[in-house]
Specification:
Elements: H1 2-20, H2 24-39, H3 42-45, E1 49-51, H4 63-71, E2 75-81, E3 89-93, E4 100-102, E5 108-110, E6 125-128, E7 132-133, E8 139-140, H5 146-151, E9 161-165, E10 186-188, E11 193-195
Parallel strand pairs: 1-2, 1-6, 6-9, 9-10
Antiparallel strand pairs: 2-3, 4-5, 7-8, 10-11
Helix pairs in contact: 2-4
């Protein structure tokens, strides 16, 4: 158990360092490629309520995609640290004029207002950030477990697609998994789209 946790920590450190070494130009190119790939996809065309995130720590930046979704009149939501239930996320509507405030990790998020919260099971797509992934759809996050806890609330027959977004350099041979890890149904990088059964 402790060896696997150590492996996860070492892998997390290695891949975080790898993605932070991407240049501003490489980051911008990856963001544009992601948006171009997704805005034309059936996946987006058939979805209305889409959760994304604001990039932090060298993550693949989906902001170009968010702007494209607004142009397509899609409803966009951002993850917010749950103000009552520690360790969980809420998804709150995000428009062009939404004011953002840094959370305790310094990540901008909208204020929680009841009429702007979208229950997780009613989202069409949840695009998640990740640190590392493998070809089996296993995801290694930042270690807080926020997404795993929140996604565990989805019913088995959910229509919500949970899709990881990552740079190509974040793929590894194998992610050491734990019982609480929620595997992803799809992972998208600027150059490839994996689908897992």
């Amino acid at each position: 158990m402790s060896t696997r946790i150590t492996l996860r920590q070492q892998l997390r450190q290695l891949i975080r360092q790898r993605r932070k070494q991407l240049s501003v130009l490489e980051q911008a190119s990856a963001a544009a490629d992601l948006a171009a790939q997704l805005t034309q996809s059936t996946l987006i065309q058939q979805s209305q309520h889409i959760a994304l995130y604001l990039a932090n720590d060298g993550e693949l930046d989906p902001f170009v995609l968010i702007q494209a979704l607004w142009q397509l009149n899609k409803q966009v939501y951002l993850p917010v640290l749950h103000p009552v239930v520690a360790g969980y996320l809420l998804f709150v509507k995000y428009d062009r004029d939404t004011l953002l405030y840094p959370n305790r990790f310094g990540i901008p998020e909208p204020l929680v207002q009841c009429h702007h919260i979208m229950p997780v099971q009613l989202l069409d797509i949840i695009f998640t950030p990740l640190v590392a992934f493998d070809a089996a759809g296993n995801r290694l996050g930042m270690g807080g477990g926020f997404y795993d806890r929140t996604l565990s609330q989805l019913p088995a027959n959910t229509q919500c697609k949970v899709i990881g977004l990552a740079h190509n350099c974040q793929q590894v041979d194998s992610v050491p998994t734990e019982a609480w890890d929620i595997p992803l149904t799809q992972i998208i990088t600027p150059s490839k789209h994996w689908k897992f059964s």
